[in-house]
Specification:
heterodimer, A: mainly beta, 7-stranded mixed beta sheet, 4-stranded antiparallel beta sheet, B: 114 residues, mainly beta, 6-stranded mixed beta sheet, 5-stranded antiparallel beta sheet, globular
């Protein structure tokens, strides 16, 4: 069964702290994604990765960085957390496809991050 | 500017009736569309999809309709059940050169009343 896990369900941090959000998938997927979900804005893509050590900016990368040292693990890093980064963070993975049709993305349960 | 829009933040439907969730998009190059369902405290799960070469795809109680000329798609749930109460996200895939990215709408909260 497909599984994407995220290291924490709830996290509270202070402004200026460095924050690590971890995501692990066990499906041998090439693609991994980080989104944030905010009311009225839906899911917005922060960063994604097609392969180990490879990363691409999404729509809202400012204030974030990522790391993908192993195929199964994709980390989101907030170098200096700010209150406007309070959000639900969702990780997803999918198989790489070269055709016209996108394979399904599988999501983790999410991490609710509060920055005080 | 949002390329995928779900203009109804919420929808309330009686159990057994039809639920219709709508989605509009602006980029005519989108070639694949998906619906995801999300319960509170869980990640979104894939529900149903449709490619741009089709105008309808059906899976049990769920049917997605695509009107390319209007850049509009809709999800029909018949009959609606209380367990369908969730947030529904519409998503679209950019042209294949952009790989496997998806662009999501803001979501519609569906409440099915028993």
């Amino acid at each position: 069964d497909v599984k994407v896990t995220q290291s924490s369900r709830y996290l509270v941090k202070r402004t200026g702290e460095k924050v690590f959000l971890e995501c692990v998938q066990d499906m041998d997927h090439e693609n991994m994604f980080w989104y944030r979900q905010d009311p009225g804005l839906g899911l917005r893509l922060i960063y994604f990765s097609y392969d180990v050590k490879m990363k691409e900016k999404g729509d809202i990368p400012e204030g974030y960085s990522v790391s993908r040292e192993k195929k199964e693990r994709f980390s989101l890093i907030l170098e200096s957390a700010s209150t406007n980064q309070t959000s639900m963070y969702l990780c997803a993975s999918s198989l790489w496809t070269s055709g016209r049709f996108t394979d399904t993305q599988y999501f983790g349960p999410g991490t609710r991050l509060t920055v005080l | 500017d949002q390329q995928v829009k779900q203009n109804s933040p919420s929808l309330s439907v009686q159990e057994g009736r039809i639920s219709i969730l709508n989605c509009d998009y602006t980029n005519s190059m989108f070639d694949y569309f998906l619906w995801y369902k999300k319960y509170p405290a869980e990640g979104p799960t894939f529900l149903i999809s449709i490619s741009s070469i089709k105008d309808k795809n059906e899976d049990g109680r769920f049917t997605v309709f695509l009107n390319k000329s209007a850049k509009h798609l809709s999800l029909h749930i018949v009959p609606s059940q209380p367990g369908d109460s969730a947030v529904y996200f519409c998503a679209a895939s950019p042209p294949s050169s952009d790989g496997n990215k998806l662009v999501f709408g803001a979501g519609t909260i569906l409440r099915v009343k028993s």
